[in-house]
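Sorry to interrupt, but I need a hand with the structure work. Could you write out one complete protein record for me, on any chain you like? Could you add the entry underneath, on a fresh line?
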Amino acid sequence: MAEALLQQTRVDQAVPYYERFLRAFPTVRALARAPLSRVLKVWEGAGYYARARHLHEAARIVMERHHGTLPRSVEELEELPGIGPYMARAIASQAFGVPVLGIDANVLRVASRLYRVEQDPTRSAVRRGIERELAPEIPGENPGGFAQALMELGETICLPRHPECSRCPLAFRCRAFREVPDPGRLPVASALRRARPVRPVAALALEHRGRWLLYERPRHGLLGGLWGFPETPVPAGTTPLSAARKEASRLLPHEGHRLRYVGTLRHVYSHFVSEIWIYRGASTAPRAVGEGHEWVPSPKVQRLPLPRVAQHIWSLVAQDSLPG
């Protein structure tokens, strides 16, 4: 679980979520038996919710195929959902003493400087070369400690921009330190990423006598299994209000929708930025509006697993005391 959290989260940020998750699911069996909605609720706030879904599914597979015991080999670990080459090697070395090395960004940076790699280490061929260089260094005893030492070195001394070479225990054999005027220029930066596109979205907070229309996202895909307020893209040449009205009419036809603007949020995802225009309205005769949608009483809203965006929307709507 710790490796899953640390894939996209710094240690200091991950610790509270890690402790909360272990309190809720102290064993593989407890995690496998829990409903996904509870797993997502406990994970709430940690982001990258696919990690929680993968953990839940992996726990079920471990119970069904491995009698509740995590497999030890890299190959078997990679067969579990959400476990790729790095995580499989990290688990195998640190939990079971298998002499393999999980290579994360910190290890790549350390190795790029240690061996003076002048190519982009994120390229597959370059990365394989680094792995070949590191393979003879892996000790037969405590390979997990060796991996953690390299990661800690990259985290605290071999820093991305200003490496503290005078403090580094590997400086005596580091080619970048001995041969490069500025060791901090390695590793070679990859091509600049394109700016994240901005996607305008209209979100609807529709209410009827203290009940709010929410929907559960499909379990696969962005924010899968989480609950949120109905939303719709705002096409080019269309105003957010007109898009919101069209979506409200689709969800609740035959009602006159008077929507009021509540606020705008911006949320940054890994590949795009969502600009969310929030509108509040009232329903005169709530009814079933399609699979996954539900009219949820106000006290229950925050008990559902909500992504951060939905939490912010709910906060804005809850502060908006005027009638819809």
Notes: The chain has a mean pLDDT of 90.
